[in-house]
Structure formats: C-alpha cells, structure tokens
Amino acid sequence: MKKKAMKDFAEIFELGGNFFQTRGQQISRQDFLEDTSNLNLDFTKYESCKHTVTALLALKPDNQLHEREAILSVLNHNNHIEDYIEQHLDVEDTFYIVIKKFFDAWAQHVGFSSTSALMDPKTQSFQIKKQEKLSIIDNNTLIEILHTVRLQDVQYGVDYIIVPRFVYFALSKWYPCNQAIERKVIQYRQDKNQALSMFKSKKVSNTQQMKGIPDSFFKIVDDCTYELEVYPKFIYFEKINDKGERPHQRAIINQKIDPQYIKKSMKSSEKLPFFELSVSRKTTFEEVLRIMSAKLQENSKRGRLWIEDQVINGVKLAETLEEFGISAGQVIYAEYATNSNQWPTDSLVQLRQGTLGGVGEEGKEALKSNGLYNLGNTCYMNSALQCLANTKFFYEFFSKEKRYQKQMNLKSKHGHQGELAENFASLMQDIWQQGKVVYPRQFKKCISNISEQFQGYDQQDSQEFLSFLLDGLHEELNLRLEKPYIENPDYSPERNVTDLALETWSNSLRRDWSFIFFMFFGQLKSTLNCQTCNKVSITFDNFTSIPLSLPEPSKILVNIVVYRLPSEIKSLLSGKLPIVNVTPLGFQGGLQRLDSFRSDEGGPTPQTPLGGANIKYTENDELNTLMNQQLNNQPIKVSLRVDKDIKIYQILQQLCEIKEVNIDLQSNQTAVSLYAIQKGQIRGIFNQELRLNSYQVSSNEIEAIEHLTRKGRDAIKELYRKSPDYLHSNTGVFYPSLLANSEKPSGDEPVSQKSQLTATSTTNQSKKSQREKKNKDPNFGLKLDRYALFNNYYNALERYSEFEQNQNFPDDVYVLAYHRRFVRKQHAFFCALQPQIISSPLILLLPIKPSGRRIYDEVWAVASNILKKSSIYHDRRNRWWEQAGWEEKLANAANHKDDIFKPFILKTVDRSGYTCSQCTWMKMCSGCLLSPSEEHLDDFFKKLHLAIEWHSSLIEEDYNEQVNDVIQHQSTQDKQIQQEEGAIQLEDCLKKFQEVEEIGQADHIYCADCKKPQGHLKRLEIFRPPPILIIQLKRFKFAGTLRNKLSTMVEFPLFNLDLSSFVSDQPHLLETLNLDLHYDLYGLINHFGSLHYGHYTSLIRNLSENKWYQYDDSHRTQILEEQIQKEAAYILFYIRKDVQSKSSLDEIFPHITRDMFPGKPVTTENGHGFILEKSGLTDQGLFKVQYEKGRLTEVVSIDQIKDEKDQDEIHYDAKQLQEIESHKKDKQKELSNRPRKCELKGRCKGFFQNMRVPGFTPAYYKPQRNGSAQRTIRRGSIKAGIAGRQQSDCNIF
C-alpha cells in the first residue's frame, strides 16, 4: 500500500490492534463499526476505502467477493504480484512466503485465476465453485525436516510464492498459518552492471531453487540496489564451553552438519544439537555475533567467532558473510571470555603447537597452515607459499628446529645475504601459528627489493614465482661456500651411462648442497642424435619442475551476445510499416482477474509470458507481432562450438543460421560485425577475413551487432516513396534524411550542385587529375580497410591529411556511440556532475561524410529502444532537433537550460567515452556538441566516437530496463555444446614429454663430428626422480604475438602415480639408492580465468590427517577428494612414497661431512672422484670410487677419503658479520637511490581518468606514442601540462 494511504489509516490501524488483543483474531466489519460508534472517526473515509481497512485490520470479510476486493485494494488493484513487488522494493522491506498449494486453492475460492482458469463461458462475472473448506496455510511442509527455518529443495512459482506483508497479514488472520517465513529486502551500493550480472549469475546457477527467481525481485534506483533476498544465508551456531571444547564436534564434516548424525541425535532429543540462524548475506559478523549472543544470553562485547580454525574478531567483525565467503549450512562457534578475561580456547592452542606430523598424543589436533591475505593480485604468491608450507619437513626445517639459521650462506654471490631465507622462515613461522590469518607484507617487500619482476601488484605467473623462490632459497641455504667451475664429462659409447650420470650429479653436489636441493632437484637425461652422421650425445641436467605440454582442443566454445536492429527497422526492411501505438495487455504470472480482458467472443484473451522463445498466438496477430518485436529488441546470447582456426565470417554464418537470432545475411540489407569487449570498453572489431585465433580474446568477451547497409537504406527509401503518408506520421522509426542529400560524395564537390554540362567537364577533369596523381603515387585512391581504421584509429588520425589527399578513406566507416548521462558525485575532484556510461555501446556503419541530421536520425533509430514505448519522445514533435527554431536554441545553448535538449544530444568524445576528442585537457570538456544540421561533415572521420548524452531526468523516468536483459538461447544450456572435449590423462602428457622431437638445422645445434649445425633428434627422460616432483601443465600458449589459455581437462591420480615407465632404465641405481617410483599428490595450484586476468587458489592434503583443504588467499575450507577441481589444475605437487614414510629430516637431507651415498663427491690421494656404490659389507667402510671422466675406478676405505672443506653448519666471526652487515647497508642505500617504480604499474593513470579530469596524468608516468610509460619526476606529485593525450592502440588487433 502507498505511504499516503498508510498515513491516512494509521490511527485506525492502531485501534484495530487493540481490538485484536481483546476480541481475538476474527472481527467483522459490522462489529468494528459498532465498537467504534462512540469514537470520532471519519466514516466517509472508511466507506470509501472499506476494503483497504478490511485487509489492513484483517477484519472478517462478509463473503468471498469482499475477501477478493480486500486483497486487491492493498495491492493498489495491481493484479500482478510480481509487478507490485518490483514497484515497492524501495519502499517496503518485508515480504512473506506462502505455500503455492494453498494460494492456488484460495485464488479459485475467491474467483481469481491461477494456473488453470475456472470460467463459465456463458457469463461475464466471476464463478466461485464449491470446494473443500480452506483450513490453514501449511508452510511447515516447505521447511526441512528436523529444522525450524531451513527451506527444503523447493522452487519459486512451483512450490511457493511470495506476497507483500499486507496480503500475508490478512490471509494469516483469516486462515491461520503454522509457520511465518519472512524475506527481507536488502539494500546495497554496487556498480549497476556488476550487481545485475551477479544477480543473473545466481539465476543461471546449478541450483534449481535460484532458476525460478524472477527479475522483478531486483531493482536499481540511482546508485542503490534493492534485492528481495529469497534465499538468505542459513548457518548453524553453538557456544564453545568453558573448557574450550566445541560441542558436537563429531557432527561436523567439512564444516557442515552430517545428516546421519542429526538422525541419530534426534532419537534421544527432539531438537537439533545446534542453533539455526537465517540472515542476509550482507549481514556483518558483528551483527551475527549480537544475534547469537542474544540467543545464548551472553554479552556480545566479550565474544568472538570461530569459523573452522579462523578467529573473527576486531576489525574482521565488520566483514560481511558474503565478503568472507560463508556457504549455506556452515557451522559457526561463538566463544566468550571468562571473568578473568581469558579465552577458553587459549588452553588448547599450545596443545596444537606440536609437529606437523599432527595427531601425536591423544587430544592433540593436527597443525594446519593459516590463510594469507591478498595484498592486491598476490594470489599467485599465496598459492605457491601454501604448497611449500605444507611440504614434508618444511615445518621442521624453518619453524620447529630452525635449522636454516645455522645454514644461511651470507657470503654467497648468488644469494642476498640471507634476506630471502630469513623473511621466508619468518613467514612460515607465522603461517603455523594457529587461529591467525597472515599478512605477508614484509615478505612481499623482500621479493620486490630482490627482483624487479615482482615489484608492484600486477598479475604474475605462479610457476615463475615458484622457480624464483626455490632458486633463491637454495642459494641462500647452500653449504658450499665456493662454487668451482667443473666441466661435465662427454658421453662415449665405452662408458656406462649410469656412471656418467653419477659423475654429473657429483659435480653438481660440489657446487650445490642445500635442503632445497635435496628436496626438489632431480636429473633429466637428454639424448641428441645427429641425423647426418648418427652421432649420439647424452647429457644430464638438473631440474626442479617438469613442464608438460597439453594438446590443444580441436574445437572451442564461443559465447556471443547479439544486439539486433530494432524490430521497427526490421519491419521497414521487410516492406511492412511497423505497428505503433499498441500497448500489450496481460501479465507474467501471478493474479489475473478473469473479467479483466475479454475477446470479442466473450472468452478470455490468451496470455503468454514474455521472454521465452518460439511464442505463438492464434487469436491476436497484432499482439503476436508486437511480442515478437519486443523479443527482437532484446539482445540474445548464443553458444557455438567452432574450430579454433575458423574464419570470422564463418562464425557469423553459423550465428545467423539460428532461427531465434532473426538476422538474414542473404538479403545484404543488414550486416553483422563481431567485436571484442572488456569491462564495458570495445577493444576492436574483428576482420571477417581473418581467423578467430588471430585475436587474443576469451570466449566470453565477444559480442555481435547488426547494422544497416546501403542496400538496406535503399529499401527503406523505396518504401517511403511508396507510402508517403507514413512520412507525415509523428510516431515510429524512420529516416527522413534518407530522402534528402544527406551524404556527400567522396569527390571534391557534389555533382548535383552544377549543371550537367559543367558536371561532365568537371568529371573529366577530375578523372584526369586522379590519373596523374595515381601515376605519381600508387596508393592514390586505394581504399583502406574499415576494420584497421577503427582498431588503429589514433594512428590513422596522425596520417589524416595523407589519407584525405590520396582519397584512401572507405565509403562507410564504423562509428562508436556510448549511451551516457550526467550524475552527481559526492566526492568529485573538480565538478560535481560527472558523465556515467549506461547500457551497452553501439557500433554504427555510416557514410564517411554524412550530414549532422543524418547522424541524429541513424542514432535515434537504433538507440530509441533505451526508452519505454510510453515515452513521449517516440513522437517526433517532442525531439528538439525536429522542432522549429532549433538552430537559434543551439546557438544560444549557454543561455538555455538543458531541458530543451531532450531526449539526447550527440557529443564527440574519445575512445573511452568520457572526455572530448576535440578540445585540449585545459578546457576539461566532456565532449563538443554535434549539430543536427543539413551540412555535410567533411571531417567526420575525426569524430567517429560519439556520446549519446541522454537527459538524466529522462533516464530516471523512461528508461527501459529490458533493453539490457539478455535472452538465453537454448544453446547456452545444451550439454553437447557446453561440454568440453574428453579429458586427457597425465600419463599421456608424460609420454608426450619423452617423445622423440625433431629439431631442424635452423635451430643451430652444433654437431662435433660434422663441425657445423645439423638437424637432430632429441629425447628427454627422467633419470633421477626428486623427492618432491613438481609438474607444470602448460596451459598458457605463446605463439609469436598470439597468446591463449588452454582449458583442456587433465585427469591425474591423487595416489600412486607410477613413474617407472617414464624413468630411464637403470634398475641397479634405483635399487642402490632405494628410490620408490610411486608418488602421491599432496598439493596443487589452480588457475581460474583467462590469460589476461585470473585468480590462483591452492588445494592441500594435510599429510598428518590425510584431509584436503582449499586455500583461497585468507580463506581455508575443508573439502572432499571428489570436490578437487581438476579442470583448473595448473601446478601439481607430488611426494615420493619412500619420502612420505620418513620421520626424520636427516633421512632426506644428508650431512655433508659424514654421510656416504652413490654420487657423493669425495677426494682421495688420486684426486677428485665420486662414490659409485658401497663395496663389501656395510660395517667395513669400503666404497667403490670413480674419478673424473672415468679415468680410474678403485675401492677405498673411509679413512682414505679426505675431510670435506665445507661443514654442516656455517659460522661467522664478528669481523665477517660486520662486513656482511656493512654490505647489507650499502645494498639498501643502493636500493633507496634507485629510481622508484610505480607499484601500481600504470593503474594510477586509470585512477585519474576515472576521476574525469582530462589530461591529468601521474607525474611519474609520461605517455609515449607507443603506449609505454617512463618515470619523469619524483613519485607523489602531479604534473599538468600535456596539451593532448596520446591514445594507445588496441594491442590485440
């Protein structure tokens, strides 16, 4: 009900409440009149609104007619409940759920029509049929069994409906309701397009519940979004007891309640072991804590929340459930401080500070690493750090035993004086402190100082960061103080390959000996075979990860949003004048009065909801045409699975073959252009002759738009000549400028301005002049490609004079037009009114030299759909450029109000759509006005970017929100189209890795026998598998300037990855080293998104409790093995089974002084050598040693081996520490004097552009012609003085 009506009946409503308390729920209108006869009430007002009062006070209706009219009155006689909800989302805040079974029965009871109409065809009145008596509103059947507020898996419109509170209040009094289920309207501020896309993404989610929610439950008013939250967050909560224990811990699986446990607990109790809570996703944790505390009768100011093992207190209480990522059915524990201000769980924290081995003594809990906050695009770093932190023995080495402190090589030339290792160890120690999310700021600062690649907060590759980190840690923890140069031996057929590999490994150990080396480094065998002389060369190289190439899919999925020409233009092209001034009747579900609309025969007119495909009407052709027109005015989304190298025109052909797209390319009256769009900005138009893989775009960044061609305009012009009466009508879309001379020929002067004789003479002279120019310049008259002109527009502007002189411009060019309006900003930099882009941009195909009036006509014909059909500006007499005297108003525009320029004006802008393309930055112009005159624009090429500046009040009143509602074609739900090609096995990728590769002569591989570069055959094999095997799935493909991400599904085993068939045949060595060739997965890094932007997460298997956890920056969630997302896997971490079973760090990291093993470098009297194997019995201390390049092999005793120069620990005296500290200070001073690089990497420029201050650029960035940036003066200041901003061209076209 409207606010005014509520105000009028406020005292009556209050009075009625007193009656209910004394006389019960049922009271008739007659009783009410009798009881209020002695009061001073205005009964004339009551009589005029008696039905409203009946509903508001829930008075007992006299009959079914009064009951029906009472409900209609509180709905303002709007017989469409969803429309009423949409209109009142910003006024009312509470609505109620009613079971649909009752609602259908009640609707028929009072004479409404629900799913089936009950109508007597002989009469015009309502027909109320006898049926069973309505008893109660049984909402309990909608609630989950054993719960009080949780809904079952029910769907809106099928199992229940939602009604306003006044309707529910009356119905619940007339028919008692056993369960009140209210739903609130949430209000928040968010970008309009983002909020709308999030709401629609929920509707197309996998849950059947959300699919039934109508769009009317979502509304945007100004900058505020109103949403009826049908499915709020449902959570369980309980209180941690005084001993710090969590009740019913056995009931929780993956932080949710086990249904089997509930059934068992219900045998001994009639209620759930947890409290239930249903709150909005926009609710803060502070409000949740307050609600819980009230239920638990505790003081919320002394409480905090626990979600899994993360504490929510302090500033984190201001975070909302949505921001944190709370899932439905999650368990939250509340903890309250004792009288001594101690937390009960503090006594248990120290019990968790055991080993990473986890569950040791009874009562101890396995350690789990904490989440890491995202500092700004640092998810690549967080995901890699989580995998390393959960690697076997990392906790012992860096946190528990802290061995790193005695092994830091502070004097290494390849390290950083222990800075990286110290910061990494500090971060590892923070990660293992339970109940604390870590901010890795200091570590991020450290790697930024060490490597410029990781400065700032740009997106990086997680694999590159991982390689950088492992190499850096290895160098800083390397026990080898000196790294001598050692030449690896050459292969010869006479020498055993295993001996050659052991010598190469021994040479590596003379230079590298660290915890990182023995954990992550393995050995690859590389075999080269010259195709000319058949010389075989074998070398061995160390590796930390294996990059595996993925096969590219033969077909890719392309999702295209198609924007069609308005239906009225389509009617003109088909030779039919469009229907105007027809308003569709009907509704989209809900209540419909059977006597509302009737056909001539007395029966009801069939009604069908809008928005569906293949709508058919049999009785009303006008309505049928109008409904189809409305569907054509909305964009449609289509999914295609096409060849990756398909040409663009072939995509367009497949697109237009779909009937629902309704575009006919055969007639040549319209054309379709495919373009790339990202974050609302058009990146470029695809050339129809090129292939799709020529462009660096993702499948969801492609849209298509339909244009009129010259042939189409000629067809409309011919229709005008046949129907002159249509030109005199004031409504409808038409192009009066087509009948005028609205296009200037490409020559120097229009022929129509001269006599025929003069024209002929001029033409002959012109042709002669053109022949002379063409002989001098071969490029004269050569028409440029319109795609290249649009995509490289600013480069073309620089050569405008050259192209104009040589007549290189095409006859038609692409014009980009942005819908925008001005809005008032509270925190504007200069001006409070700032332009705002609304709706999707338009691309038009216009002549190179049109008239201003022609441009306005073309734009209005396509852009008019943004207004409702009821708008007065569909009448041409109300458009300012159609009125008499517009020239004078335009000349005196500064003295007039903006109201005279309705519905819009056109302004020339740059590619962004916000600032003027003609004026300098000093004018701070948002765009120069384009006049709708009949004069031709010879320099129109300089104005190809336009802003359709709608009047703000017009957008608020007449904006047609359906213009942006995308119709989902059935192909978007087709499983055959959406489903990716079959997954490949990891074993197949490993087989491809070791396949023989042919290398051509052009790759310059030198053959020692041929004495020149030759073609070779190359093969790679794993020779020594490392304890920790890192596998990179190469999803990012780089081919020249083209880049792409492969979404190929790779199936990989979680346990028992067998490498026996991929390791070079060497059974004796493997047996000697006691290496197991089976691996188990313990971690993986996922990458979601495209090559240009994306997000990293990590999945970790806690080795102590054998449970999987997902780490999404600061959030940690336990998951099942079945929930592992293999389709996004990027980096896999496998641990060798024999390493997994080891319990001591010494078993994997040998001592440099006393441990002897095959490949260990040793020195005897005969020189440097390495151990081949142990000889004799173990306790005899005899070893078989081979010397450099296999010159000698002998058996030596342990006493003959000289002591190592390096030790297992590194110690420094005071003088050395002073030198190291001095070196650190010098390095820090050098870093401080180094030119500081903007950590935003150019995004600060975008920040100032978003403030709409034309020309203002951060001082430390100077725009260059090629779009690059260089530092000019000190960071922090702002320099203004760039006369004109250079626009960088699109980098993908």
From TrEMBL:
<dbReference type="InterPro" id="IPR028889">
    <property type="entry name" value="USP"/>
</dbReference>
<feature type="domain" description="USP">
    <location>
        <begin position="370"/>
        <end position="1137"/>
    </location>
</feature>
<keyword id="KW-0645">Protease</keyword>
<keyword id="KW-0788">Thiol protease</keyword>
<dbReference type="InterPro" id="IPR035927">
    <property type="entry name" value="DUSP-like_sf"/>
</dbReference>
<dbReference type="InterPro" id="IPR006615">
    <property type="entry name" value="Pept_C19_DUSP"/>
</dbReference>
<dbReference type="InterPro" id="IPR001394">
    <property type="entry name" value="Peptidase_C19_UCH"/>
</dbReference>
<keyword id="KW-0378">Hydrolase</keyword>
<dbReference type="GO" id="GO:0006508">
    <property type="term" value="P:proteolysis"/>
</dbReference>
<dbReference type="InterPro" id="IPR018200">
    <property type="entry name" value="USP_CS"/>
</dbReference>
<dbReference type="GO" id="GO:0004843">
    <property type="term" value="F:cysteine-type deubiquitinase activity"/>
</dbReference>
<dbReference type="InterPro" id="IPR050185">
    <property type="entry name" value="Ub_carboxyl-term_hydrolase"/>
</dbReference>
<feature type="compositionally biased region" description="Polar residues">
    <location>
        <begin position="752"/>
        <end position="767"/>
    </location>
</feature>
<dbReference type="InterPro" id="IPR038765">
    <property type="entry name" value="Papain-like_cys_pep_sf"/>
</dbReference>
<comment type="similarity">
    <text>Belongs to the peptidase C19 family.</text>
</comment>
<feature type="region of interest" description="Disordered">
    <location>
        <begin position="743"/>
        <end position="779"/>
    </location>
</feature>
<dbReference type="Pfam" id="PF06337">
    <property type="entry name" value="DUSP"/>
</dbReference>
<dbReference type="GO" id="GO:0016579">
    <property type="term" value="P:protein deubiquitination"/>
</dbReference>
<dbReference type="Pfam" id="PF00443">
    <property type="entry name" value="UCH"/>
</dbReference>
<protein>
    <recommendedName>
        <fullName>ubiquitinyl hydrolase 1</fullName>
        <ecNumber>3.4.19.12</ecNumber>
    </recommendedName>
</protein>
<feature type="domain" description="DUSP">
    <location>
        <begin position="62"/>
        <end position="186"/>
    </location>
</feature>
<keyword id="KW-0833">Ubl conjugation pathway</keyword>
